[in-house]
Amino acid sequence: MNRPWLDPQLPEPERIQLLLGTMTLREKVGQMHQIANVTSTSQDEELRAGGIGSSLFASGAWAGNQQDAGVRVEGLNAVQRIAVEESPLGIPLIFARDVIHGFRTVFPIPLGQAAAWDPESVGRAAEIAALEAAAAGLHWTFTPMLDIARDPRWGRIAEGSGEDPHLGSILATAAVRGYQGDDLRDEGRIAACAKHYIGYGAAEGGRDYNSTQIGPRTLRDVYLPPFAAAVRAGVATVMASFNEIDGIPVTGSHELIRDLLKGELGFDGFVVSDWGAVGELIAHGFAADAAEAVRKSVEAGIDMDMVSGLYDRHLAAEVEAGRVDAALVDDAVRRILRIKFRLGLFERPYTDPGGGGRIGAIPARRGPGIGTMPFPGRDRVSRPTNVQQTPPAGMTQSISIPESHRARARRLATRSLVLLKNTDSVLPLRTPKRILLTGAFARARTELFGTWTLDGQESDVTTIEEALRAALPAEVKLETKLFPDEAVVYGRYADAIIACIGEHPIRSGEANSTGTIDLPPGQLEALKGLRAYGVPLIVVVFAGRPLALPWLADHADAILYAWHPGVEGAGAVVDVLLGNESPSGRLPVSFPRRTGQIPIYYNHRPTGRPVEGGLRGGNRYCDGPDTPLYPFGFGLGYTTFEYSDLRLSSASMRTDGEIEIRATLRNSGAVAGEEVAQLYVRDLAASVSRPVKELKGFARIALAPGESGEVTFRLLATDLAFSRLDGSVGVEPGGFRCWIGPDATRGIEGGFDVPG
Ligand code: BGC
Questions:
Q1: Which atom of ligand 1 lies at the shortest distance from residue 159's CA?
Q2: Which of 73, 158, 207, 557, CA to CA, is 20 to 30 A from 576?
Q3: What is the reported pLDDT for 596?
Q4: Ligand 1 pocket check: which of 35, 71, 98 to mutate, most ligand atoms within 8 Å of Cβ?
């Protein structure tokens, strides 16, 4: 058959049009149909008929909380071969997988990555994940998750960047660029997916999949910005979220998908539903039956149906009966083909099992290399040599992690660690003779990975105990006692106690919300027993969410918040405990004192009776403080920084202008360290009430003891834009305050005007 669309010289729209013009309705619907775990034997007929557009791979794993059997290049190639060589039009499949925070090289959970306030490292992590995933035959990952989350009960807070739209947007851009690079065709690049569009993190009560109530302004000013940033960064795909907003499930929302995302934001990639969400429109009470669910989803703008199978079953009939406009199907298919062309799948549909990246033809079997997936491309220098000849069945990869990938994971893990408390500079540990190591995480391996880790390998992980033993001088006695009662007995003989506590990854992630954010049962009691001896108590907390730690805040000597730090987590924690690295992570989300304070977030709107005003009976609790235990942006280091001399380039900014805001920072302590300086702004009066503070910039600055440096932020009038009373987006004239400081509650203050 003549296939003119295969000519790579033709412009992309022409290639798409040529192909679309040749397709039958059945084949078009096939492109919109994504199944799970396709194999060349069970789905061969469907593949031959061009009835499948995509497959995702999640065998055996339930909602990302289990390692699964892994993907194999040869299996994917065999599937692709049927689609490309035996179906009438030869359209390649796009293969997807949840590569959420790394593939074989597991990076910290996304919330931990956000705590690094380091877009460059987040981008590099995405780049490495893409490189490894592409080598395994994948084209597309369902990440980054861009849901703003103000409720730590929600288990999926682990998968996102926390509560702030600005930080979320910067990291969204970094991640999308990291996965996709400049050109999706380039070696080691895969398509990203901005998810879950939109409002999923606002689930009522923090219960996953729950209904949401989000006002139109909050939707645009708080929940939308990271998605808008991802679209600007060229994200190839977007996943619609499971939730409904004020009665309308996003999967069926014309207004949110077709009008806002595709229309107003100009998104030209394709939108995939979440798992089975098309069918769930029935459970939502938004569609009476499957055919109606299909109609509403297609009309809303869901281009690809993830695994419900309902497009496959009903869409052609709905079009033929005139109940779904054929032009909507064409639009969806055009979008899907666009991404397949951009990925270069028509030219190179297969993946070289020998590590050569995407290729045009399946190579002849090569014996020893088959089944191994070395990492290609940019990391050739560090390409591992210990390739196993016959990988154990089910293993995703059979080689070790390249050192350069480990180094990036270590760097990001180190920067993600947040020191919350450090009484009398108990950390870094100086010269203990005898250390007691305790807590469930002392010997943890895969538990350090965190939720949604499908491809990490237990054998790649060093435990805290091993890392500590390796780093401590031989004469220091390290005793590990996992049973709390045994630990308590040994505790009295130690010079320092390191307790590695927290929550198992299974308590966070999808479908794992908690009704309380207290430490899991039993741990606090053990810590209280250890505290009794007066031996310095250093607590390292591993968790997928902010936990409420009021007792620790009062009684522990040091608290290091480690999230789930990934494959290099243990080394990173030990480096910080021993002072080889100075902690510099900052909280990307407010830490409540107790569950009842939720939702608590720094960028709330003012009330008529603010607590800060000191008015008795203001909006405070009568049974405890209303402030967070640790505010957004907070984190200690091993040194201290003084902020001074706030300077603005001008006292006024035009509505289309910009100003520069600077401050001087001085390292006033005795050791070198890095500070994350943060710029906050408040719009004092506007046509709608504006948040008490909003993050508008941040900068990492490294200073030697006694050294001073300057941070400069460029603030554009467009950074001050918001959804105004009349629904338009823009800045309004008036007075503004601004702060440069170490967190959302502190800083040196100034102000400027935007004249009318
Ligand atoms: C999750 C998505 C995920 C998808 C595919 C869904 O249950 O909500 O985040 O990408 O499954 O595994």
A1: 9
A2: 158
A3: 97
A4: 98
CATH of 403-597, one of 3.40.50.2300, 3.40.50.1700, 3.90.110.10, 3.20.20.10: 3.40.50.1700
CA gap 129, 134 in Å, rounded: 8
Q: Is 510 in the pocket of ligand 1 (CB under 6 A)?
A: yes
Residue 412, amino acid: L
Residue partners of 314: CB distance under 8 A and separation at least 6 = 290, 291, 294
In the chain, where the domains are located: 403-597, 639-754
Burial of 424 (0-12, 13-18, 19+ CB in 10 A): exposed
Are 41 and 24 in contact by the 8 Å Cβ rule? The answer is no
pLDDT attached to residue 533: 87
- Per-residue pLDDT at 618: 73
d(C-alpha 21, C-alpha 672), whole Å? 64
What pLDDT was estimated at residue 392?
A: 34
The active-site residue, picked from 274, 305, 455, 683, is: 274
**Is residue 679 within 8 Å of residue 696, measured between CB atoms?**
yes
Q: Are 482 and 523 in contact (CB under 8 A)?
A: no
Nearest in space to 338 (alpha carbons), one of 51, 91, 98: 91
Q: How far apart are CA 190 and CA 186, in angstroms?
A: 9
Number of CB atoms found within 10 A of residue 86's CB: 13
Beta-bridge partners for 677:
699
From the CB of 375, is ligand 1 less than 6 Å away? no
State the closest ligand 1 atom to the C-alpha of 63, by its place in the atom list counted from 1.
7
Look at the alpha carbons of 172, 177, 179, 180 in this order and tell me if their dihedral is positive or negative.
positive
pLDDT at 397 over 50: no
For domain 639-754, the question of CATH label 2.60.40.10 is answered with yes
Per-residue pLDDT at 265 exceeds 90: yes
The pTM score is: 0.95
Question: In this structure, which amino acid lies at residue 31?
Answer: Q
Quick one: which of 723, 728, 743 has its CA closest to 603?
743
Does 97 contact ligand 1 (Cβ within 6 A)? no
Which residue's alpha carbon is nearest to atom 6 within ligand 1?
Answer: 275
- Do 54 and 96 touch, CB atoms closer than 8 A? yes
Average pLDDT of the segment spanning 32-47: 95
In the residue annotation, 743 being an active-site residue is answered as no
Judge whether residue 514 has pLDDT over 80. Answer: yes
Any atom of ligand 1 within 6 Å of the Cβ of 142: yes
Average pLDDT of 106-130? 98
| pLDDT at 383 > cutoff 90 | no
